[in-house]
């Protein structure tokens, strides 16, 4: 790996910043000052230091994003802002992609990583990974709707696995409901279609959690951060190298 690429990926700064730091002789490779950005280093064997601090390379990175509405769960698109546009240049350079997708108008938790094995494990239908959503619904959700969710909603092209519908609040005057929905699948527009099958309409949808990860309530819409140590440990249940 080129030294400048290594320095960018461990978070020292952009390529422009890194080149400046190299010229200032602030980087050492195996205890020798290095000023060339082009030299090749081995992140697993060579000792790279910046201002005396040892730099440790991580092959995989993991970011939690509070996806806002209007942004699509893709790495590139000619017409719309993507979730990668929410990240800074340094984070985008790590080759991350969204684990699964949220509809364009859906907000909430989205994990971005460059670890393909983890993404595959979390999205595998065999894993039955829980996904919890908060939904604002036009219409009054009832006990019979809860029973339908528990039995497995039948859609025109798919019979859903049993799911949980928790009724948080209803407004009889406005004829609206606030609910939480827990599913173990991720079919196209699934939550909206399940609610529609009960004769109601989702007007707002937000994902609160996916598997062991829960949305950090301190993250504003469009904000992101690396996963914390405890969150990283929670992903060990998927049995892949992190």
Query: What share of the residues lie within helices?
Result: 10-25%
Biggest sheet descriptor: 9 strands, mixed
Distance between the termini: 20 Å
Task: Please trace the helix and strand order, writing H or E for each element.
Answer: HHEEEEEHEEHEHEEHEEEH
What average pLDDT do the residues reach? 95
Which structural category fits the helices and strands? alpha+beta
Radius of gyration computed on alpha carbons? 22 Å
- Estimate the global geometry from the Cα principal axes: elongated
Fraction of residues in β-strands: 25-35%
Set down the secondary structure blueprint.
Blueprint: H1 3-9, H2 15-23, E1 27-29, E2 32-33, E3 48-50, E4 53-54, E5 62-67, H3 89-92, E6 97-98, E7 107-113, H4 116-123, E8 131-138, H5 143-151, E9 164-171, E10 176-183, H6 190-197, E11 201-210, E12 213-214, E13 224-226, H7 229-234
Structure summary:
The protein has 242 residues and is an alpha+beta fold. It contains seven helices and 13 strands.
